[in-house]
From TrEMBL:
Part of the ABC transporter FtsEX involved in cellular division. NCBIfam families: FtsX_Gneg. InterPro entries: ABC3_permease_C, FtsX, FtsX_ECD, FtsX_proteobact-type. It is found in: Cell inner membrane. Belongs to the ABC-4 integral membrane protein family. FtsX subfamily. GO terms for biological process: cell division. Pfam families: FtsX, FtsX_ECD. Residues 78-166 form the FtsX extracellular domain. This is Cell division protein FtsX. Keywords: Cell cycle, Cell division, Cell inner membrane, Cell membrane, Membrane, Transmembrane, Transmembrane helix. Forms a membrane-associated complex with FtsE. Its main location: membrane. It comes from Cognatilysobacter lacus. The chain crosses the membrane at residues 40-63, 186-206, 234-253, 285-308.
Amino acid sequence: MSTKARRNDVVRTRSRFGAWVDHHVHSLLASLLRMARKPWATGLTVGVMAIAFALPLGLWAVLSNLSQFTGDVQQSRQVSVYMKPGTALERAQVLATEVRARPDVARVDVRSADEGLRELRAQGGLAEAADALGENPLPHLLRVTPRGDDAPLATALQTMPDVDVVQQDAAWRQRLDRWLTLGERVAWVLAVLLGLGALLVVGNTVRLDIQSRRDEIEVLQLLGATGGFVRRPFLYLGACYGLLSGLIALALLTGAEFAVREPISRLAQTYGSAFRLQGFDPFRAAVAVLGAGLLGWLGAGLVTGHYLRQTRSTGE
């Protein structure tokens, strides 16, 4: 092949690619313009989709905030080992060293009887009761943080010498884990159902737009337009609906977060917790918006593909 022929092929390839890019840009701008020309219909469609996206996203945000209690849950998973009355603090520290050597133990903290009495005095309204005790009746305490399941560890600690009582409560943690698992399952169910609802909303909106442009589509097909050429503007229309809905859903959730953040922080402070409500980080927000846009693109693609298959089957 001559140099001139190769040059002509390169020019034609660039020309086709440029036309392809131009049509994508034109389809995007035309979709935005059509949405702007029908603000009432666009607002209704986007509003319904935004609420459909906001519900599962909000539930996921709640579950994500609950995961912030992991540190507190880990603290509450501690096994409390009370030494026998009269046991020396040195003996408690030796026992703590032995427990730390176990492979199923992550951490051991020693709270002496004097520290326990100071904590009792520090609690509101209990200072006088602590003074009335006279001699310190509190035992030394080992706070053991398990590395895995705490039930076998608690049983083993109970058999160690100089140990009086081993306290651990796994029932409430099991209930908490089950509630969190149920919440995640509900979030997925809501996401699927409301996602299907948003898909249908986009599909119906695009279907109405296709019907209003039926003559235009037929002319394009008579001129030899491919299915991709016909489908592209509607795909961008669906994607724009989805992206805008995702942004509005995030705005709604952000507003709800600001509305309840301060009351939740004050409530947590009354329980001695520093918990603060957290919203969507940039990565999760981007994933949510792009996912909404993809869902809109998919809904438009399904409806447009169905229409094109019908026109081919009927010979239009």
